[in-house]
Amino acid sequence: MNSVCDVIKKACLTEKGMALQEEHNQIVVKVDPRANKLEIKEAVEELFNVKVDKVRTANMHGKMKRVGKHMGRRNDWKKAVVSLAEGHKVDFLEDL
C-alpha cells in the first residue's frame, strides 16, 4: 500500500463499534481487503497519532439485496478491530 488513505477507508460507526471504543479502548475501521495487520497498525498510528497494541481483522461478506424482482449483492469488505495502548484514545464524534 502506498499511503495511509489507501489502507484505511473509513470508520465503522455502529453501536457495537462505539461500545468497543468506550469499554475496551478499541476502534473499528474498514480497510482495504489487501492490507495486512502490520500495514493497518502503521496507518492507524500515523493517522491518529496513537500507539497500537493489537490488530484483529475479519473479511466480511456482502449481503444479498433485492431491487425489485432482481437479486444483487453488496461488495465484500475487510474490517479491522484495533486495540489502543493504555492512555491513548481516538474519538470519531468529537468534531460533529
Descriptive key words:
two-stranded antiparallel sheet, Alpha-Beta Plaits, 6 strands, 96 residues, four-stranded antiparallel sheet, alpha+beta
What do you see in this structure?
There is one protein chain. With 96 residues, the protein is α+β, with helices and mostly antiparallel strands. It has one domain (4-84): RRM (RNA recognition motif) domain (Alpha-Beta Plaits, 2-Layer Sandwich). Helix content is 27%, strand content 36%. It contains three helices and six strands; from the N terminus they run αβαβαββββ. The strands form two sheets. A four-stranded antiparallel beta sheet has the order 1-2-6-3. A two-stranded antiparallel sheet has the order 4-5. β4 (64-67) and β5 (70-73) form a beta hairpin. The longest helix is centred in the middle third of the chain and has 12 residues, at 37-48. It is globular. The mean pLDDT is 92.
Question: Strands, helices and their partners?
Answer:
Layout: H1 4-7, E1 8-11, H2 15-24, E2 26-31, H3 37-48, E3 52-60, E4 64-67, E5 70-73, E6 77-84
Antiparallel strand pairs: 1-2, 2-6, 3-6, 4-5
What are the secondary-structure elements, in order, as H or E? HEHEHEEEE
Structural class: alpha+beta
Mean pLDDT: 92
Computed over alpha carbons, the radius of gyration is 15 Å
What's the shape? globular
Short description:
The protein is built from three helices and six strands. It is of the alpha+beta class and 96 residues long.
